[in-house]
Amino acid sequence: xxxxxxxxxxxxxxxxxxxxxxxxxxxxxxxxxxxxxxxxxxxxxxxxxxxxxxxxxxxxxxxxxxxxxxxxxxxxxxxxxxxxxxxxxx
Length: 90
What we know:
The protein is of the alpha+beta class. The chain is built from two helices and four strands. The protein has a four-stranded antiparallel β-sheet with strand order 1-2-3-4, with no helix packed on it. A hairpin with a 6-residue loop joins β2 and β3 (about 45). The protein starts with 19 loop residues before the first strand and ends in an 8-residue tail after the last helix.
């Protein structure tokens, strides 16, 4: 994903803009990272350079929780334990 895309992205749930970006791996583009809506605390993973900004009902806990666990050292605690639609247990 190109960083410039953040200028036009809004939360698909509450339409909030701007969103927060956390980059975990980057080369020419962002390979792995996290997009966060500071208003509703929803988070959206960036995997293989693609931001996955799906509504809650189309997301899979079985895919999202391993992503949180993989990058837990780089994700803010508020998102890890209070983020939507899935979060880690303390």
